[in-house]
Structure formats: C-alpha cells, structure tokens
Amino acid sequence: MILVNTDYISGKTFEMLGLVKGSTIQTKNIGKDISQGLKTLIGGELKAYNEMMNEARALATNRMVEEAENLGADAVVNIRYASSAIMGGAAEVIAYGTAVRFIESK
After folding, report:
1. pTM for the complete prediction?
2. Known Gene3D superfamilies for this protein (predicted)?
C-alpha cells in the first residue's frame, strides 16, 4: 500500500475509489497525567503525551489503510491528519485520504 500526502503518484494512473479514514481516541493513565502536569511547571517536552500522539497517529493510519484495503485500493493519496482534545489528557486523531486503484497502461 502506497501512502502519500500529494494528489498524484509519479508514473501511476489511477481511479478514485472514495474517501477512507481511521480514527482513535487515546489517553494516558492518571500517573502519567499527573507527572506531565507537573512538567508544565518547569517546561520541556511532554514525552508521555508525545508518545501517546505518535501511537494514536499510527493506529489511525492503520485503520485508514485497512479501510482502503477493503475497497481493493493500491494506494491512499492526499492523506491528512487532524486532532482535537476530547477532555483533559485525551485526544482524538483522525487520518483520512482518497483510496485509489492503479490503472494498467497498455
């Protein structure tokens, strides 16, 4: 499966199959929330939340790819990510794009 954030793939002609997406809502445990809250007092990177968001993006991407595979897609083009806070310490991440199938040249 080819994943790109452009609306084309060099050397490939394709037909669009439709919008595909994957999402997740992630949170860290209360211990991590407290330690990361204290970190805001002294500054610096919030590593536990950074890891959480990386995991969430990976899971959302995998779910998007699974949806594309179910449509018989060879690739997903024009991929975008969005995130939003759901509540303190929890975030939703969505990955979306257009599933496409390659057309063989004659």
Report:
1. 0.81
2. Hypothetical protein apc22750. Chain B
